[in-house]
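lol ok so funny story. i was supposed to be doing the assay writeup but got distracted and ended up predicting the structure for this chain instead. priorities right. anyway since i did it might as well share w the group, maybe its usefull for someone
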Amino acid sequence: ISHSSAGIWLEVYLDILFCITVTGMGLLVINDLVFENPTLLLIPPMLFIGGTFVITKANRFYNRWLNLENFISAIKNVASSSRLASSLFCTAGIWIAAGTGYHCMLKAMLDSSGADLGLSLLALTSGFLTGLISMVPGGLGVRELTWSYIVSQNGYPVEIAGLSAIIYRLFSILLVLLFFVAKTYLYRNRN
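and the output, tada:
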């Protein structure tokens, strides 16, 4: 159980770090701060790298304040350098795939020159962070509003932005449900 809970915490932590990095870089580009000081683009990736380093060194801090030895050893196993590199790659790949899916859906609903993959990724990562901060279970409603707002501020009509967010959320939930139904079906037929 320690290994599985450590893996979940690591996944959430990497999601948060990746979303902060993408959102921070997106906000710098949107506000034209990059042209004034291009070195500002280095801040979000440096936070990402620093946060990743904190994961691997977490046992020193936690052992002083909390007695979580089993959990920390599981985190160390899950966050070993080889596993951490593959976890970082998978985290980035999952978010880029999600952003690509959202981008394709937006392009299918209304072809607009204002939309690009970066905008879709920025909308999704910002929605994840605002949903997490809101403490609403699953960020339900908060994420969709964030996605709609960001997309509508960059060239899409509000109606299309809102509809695309709702359809994307329903489709992603449906895919998860189908995966678990298929997994359960295959598991039962195997036994």
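The mean pLDDT is 77. The longest helix spans residues 158-190.
back to the writeup now i swear
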